[in-house]
């Protein structure tokens, strides 16, 4: 517990001093502000370049604005999260920053859990702020089909679990790969493969990518299995990471 | 076992097929400053990394204060302080933040952390740089902060790997004084350094390690006596070359070297030479200004042992 508390504090200082808060906030909340504005001005920007019949198809509603935000969050947001956190363990391991903490008897479980929980809470917070922001701006700028705030929270909740899965996968890969960029690209590759498998009906609901589909539908119906499996995979990654970090020679 | 702070029995460590430690054993009594010497690649740092829980070992036993290291490593490490050769910190933190972080890891109460931080920053002379980011520190300052980290939880056993390596002369003296002072607080210090003069200044006992094996473990005084060189250096008031023939005819004298008024006599029976040589020289009538048995320093002993020329 002492290690866990010390590392939560350390990650807090690190996030501020290395501008991780700003980078992650821009990558997650930034699109919530930009998306509604972009979608509002897009038809005007393109009105002279598109045929009349095509531009008439570009009708946006508050609901489609949120869907557009979810799409951006899954694409660019994921990239920002992955490449901001891809060094999460490897950098400290390679540069021997764990030497003093380990020599003082700190617990690898405390280190891994502190990192997982800290960044999951931070990203979850940003995701909820992002969804509320896009809901608010979407409602102001567009007319038409709306989504209830409670359904917005359901989507934000599903996206948070999806990002929890990504963070734990990233931490696991960062514990076995020396270079942060490689763990980042491996995470991206796995996400891409999961997307491909997600199209297979029989296994789709066991894969975390199904959470994105449900987030787009603003529903928690039929998601229990997907949520359970996403949490199970994440727990397994955390356990493997702790095992790896317990055996790792940090010097 | 009770007055032993550290007992290492037959430790082996390999990296792939390369055996770094080939069954080393030694023990350190409580409150002793123990030096660990050896050429580069002898296995000093590997031993220290093993004892500070950073590296695993293949076989052997380690006991810290009588407790089995394998059984309760993390708990025992709370009583051990370690300074690596190149200490690495979170450079975006300042010294106070880093020491607080170490205090929290060591599960110390908040009040004690604050007090200990102030106390140690003063000891290592970093109070003026306490709020500066560690990334802006010089090598020497980092080394001193590393010592503060090693000492933070007032450990009973402190392992220092080349603590004076990156320090200037003044800094070296400060750190050596600090190490000497640890002895008065009954702390056991296990120290490696390639600066043999430093080891000689502060250590009570030493082990010399070469090629993954311990060549010798003993107190510095015993080593000096054991590896004393059987050479007497004598200075006369007048030229002394006429003595050569007479001295060489004595059976326990092997060689005589004369340089003006100085004479070096190499003997093969030290005990006889100690009692008889001076008498013979006095009889020559040439007044003697100085007479001394050439003493080995730690560096001589180290070189002789490592080069396997112990009988020179």
Architecture overview:
Chain A has 251 residues and is an all-alpha fold. Chain A has 13 helices and no strands. Chain A has helices spanning 2-17, 20-28, 30-46, 52-55, 62-85, 90-94, 99-103, 108-141, 149-176, 180-198, 201-204, 210-217, 224-247. Chain A is elongated, with a radius of gyration of 20 Å. The two termini of chain A are 24 Å apart. Chain B has 312 residues and is of the alpha/beta class. Chain B has two domains: 4-218, P-loop containing nucleotide triphosphate hydrolases (Rossmann fold), CATH 3.40.50; 230-294, 2-Layer Sandwich (Alpha-Beta Plaits). Helix content of chain B is 35%, strand content 29%. A six-stranded mixed sheet of chain B has the order 6-7-8-3-9-10, sandwiched between helices. A four-stranded antiparallel sheet of chain B has the order 2-1-4-5, with helices on one face. In chain B, a hairpin with a 2-residue loop joins strand 12 (253-259) and strand 13. The mean pLDDT of chain B is 88. The A-B interface holds A 2-3, 5-6, 9-10, 13-14, 17-18, 95-97, 99-107, 247, 249-251 and B 49, 52-56, 73-78, 80-82, 84, 86-90, 92-93, 97, 101-102, 104-107, 146, 149, 152-153.
């Amino acid at each position: 517990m002492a290690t866990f508390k010390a590392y939560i504090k350390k990650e807090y200082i690190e996030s501020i001093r290395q501008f991780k808060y700003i980078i992650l906030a821009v990558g997650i909340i930034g699109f919530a502000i930009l998306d509604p504005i972009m979608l509002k001005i897009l038809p005007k920007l393109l009105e002279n370049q598109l045929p009349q019949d095509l531009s008439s198809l570009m009708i946006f509603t508050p609901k489609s604005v949120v869907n557009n935000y979810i799409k951006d969050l899954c694409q660019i947001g994921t990239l920002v999260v992955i490449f901001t956190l891809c060094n999460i363990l490897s950098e400290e391991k390679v540069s021997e920053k764990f030497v003093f903490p380990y020599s003082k008897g700190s617990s690898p479980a405390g280190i891994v859990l502190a990192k997982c929980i800290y960044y999951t809470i931070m990203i979850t917070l940003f995701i909820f702020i992002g969804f509320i922001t896009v809901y608010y701006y979407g409602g102001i700028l567009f007319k038409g089909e709306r989504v209830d705030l409670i359904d917005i929270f359901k989507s934000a909740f599903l996206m948070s679990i999806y990002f929890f899965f990504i963070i734990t996968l990233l931490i696991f890969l960062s514990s076995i790969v020396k270079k942060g960029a490689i763990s980042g690209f491996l995470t991206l590759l796995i996400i891409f493969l999961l997307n491909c498998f997600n199209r297979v009906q029989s296994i789709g609901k066991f894969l975390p990518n199904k959470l994105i589909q449900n987030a787009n539908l603003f529903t928690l119906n039929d998601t229990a299995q997907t949520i359970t499996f996403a949490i199970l995979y994440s727990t397994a990654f955390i356990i493997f990471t702790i095992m790896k970090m317990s055996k790792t020679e940090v010097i | 076992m009770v007055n032993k702070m550290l007992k290492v029995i037959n430790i082996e460590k390999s990296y792939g097929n390369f055996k770094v430690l080939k069954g080393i054993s030694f023990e350190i009594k409580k409150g002793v400053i123990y030096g660990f010497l050896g050429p580069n690649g002898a296995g000093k740092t590997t031993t220290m990394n093993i004892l500070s829980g950073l590296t695993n070992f293949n076989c052997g036993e380690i006991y810290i204060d009588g407790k089995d290291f394998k059984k309760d490593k993390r708990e025992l490490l709370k009583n051990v302080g370690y300074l690596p050769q190149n200490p690495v910190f979170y450079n975006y933190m300042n010294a106070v933040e880093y020491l607080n972080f170490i205090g929290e890891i060591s599960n110390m109460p908040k009040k004690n952390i604050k007090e200990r931080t102030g106390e140690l920053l003063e000891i290592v002379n970093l109070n003026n740089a306490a709020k500066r980011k560690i990334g802006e520190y010089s090598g020497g300052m980092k080394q001193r902060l590393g010592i503060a980290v090693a000492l933070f939880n007032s450990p009973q056993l402190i392992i220092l790997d080349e603590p004076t390596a990156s320090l200037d002369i003044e800094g070296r003296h400060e750190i050596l004084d600090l190490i000497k002072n640890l002895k008065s607080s009954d702390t056991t210090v296990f120290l490696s350094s390639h600066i043999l003069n430093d080891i000689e200044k502060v250590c009570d006992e030493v082990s010399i390690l070469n090629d993954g094996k311990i060549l010798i473990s003993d107190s510095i005084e015993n080593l000096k006596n054991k590896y004393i060189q059987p050479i007497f250096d004598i200075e006369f008031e007048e030229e002394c070359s006429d003595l050569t023939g007479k001295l060489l005819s004595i059976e326990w004298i092997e060689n005589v070297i004369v340089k003006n008024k100085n004479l070096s006599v190499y003997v093969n029976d030290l005990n006889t030479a100690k009692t008889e040589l001076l008498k013979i020289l006095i009889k020559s009538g040439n007044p003697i200004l100085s007479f001394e048995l050439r003493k080995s320093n730690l560096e001589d002993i180290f070189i002789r042992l490592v080069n396997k020329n112990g009988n020179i």
